[in-house]
UniProtKB/TrEMBL annotation:
Organism: Streptomyces lavendulocolor
The name this protein goes by in its record: Uncharacterized protein
Length: 72
């Protein structure tokens, strides 16, 4: 990533035994120093509830890999 440039990102999820699904459209992030910050949703609101072992991923537009974590 280039410092000072904003990028588009989306988040995806994969519940156990199901295919990967895009949860959001591409959202423009904003450059914050050396980082790119992207926000989905509103403060104070409860987000979606997922099952244990669901994989949550962030994908930047144009990037070949996704950043993923599994819920414990």
């Amino acid at each position: 990533m280039t410092k000072g440039r904003s990028y588009f990102a989306r988040w995806l999820y994969q519940e156990p035994g199901k295919p990967m699904r895009a949860a959001t459209d591409w959202t423009r992030g904003r450059a914050v120093g050396d980082f790119n910050e992207v926000s989905w949703g509103k403060d104070g609101h409860i987000g979606p509830q997922f099952h244990k072992n669901t994989k949550i991923c962030i994908q930047y537009k144009g990037a070949a890999t996704k950043l993923c974590r599994s819920l414990a």
